[in-house]
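Z., the sequence and structure:
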Amino acid sequence: MVLALAFLAMPMTTVWGQGTETFVKSPLAIETADGKVDFTVEVAVTPSQRAQGLMYRRKLAGDAGMLFDYGRTQPAAMWMKNTYIPLDMLFIAGDGRVVRIAERTVPQSLAVVGSGEPVRAVLELKGGSAARLGIKPGDRVRHEIFGTAPP
């Protein structure tokens, strides 16, 4: 009975026996040449949150994403193990500038996707979002981790 109650009390985004982390959501904006694009992102700050990321998810809204905050500038590498949806990965410098974009990464691939240079964070969006929204390297990400919360 206690186990059943514990299962019912788990957040809906949790997958029993797979992803057990929960994430805080916050607003994020990207300033592109065409204007500002708003998102609500889940923020992964702990090692276990960053390890889980968007694994086991079957869908991701067009205005949602996950921001991996490393807390400092460092090289970053991602992969798509146990990730069922294609993603765009935006590698972001400490000042909030997008330095690299890996578009439409392959679901469940074990290929390493590297930042190419040290970054503070990685933003994962639904695959195709960068092209659809005109997001390019050099665009600015506004979020509290960069000291530039969205207006």
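The chain is about 15% helix and 40% strand. Helices lie at 2-9, 47-52, 129-133.

Let me know what you think.
H.
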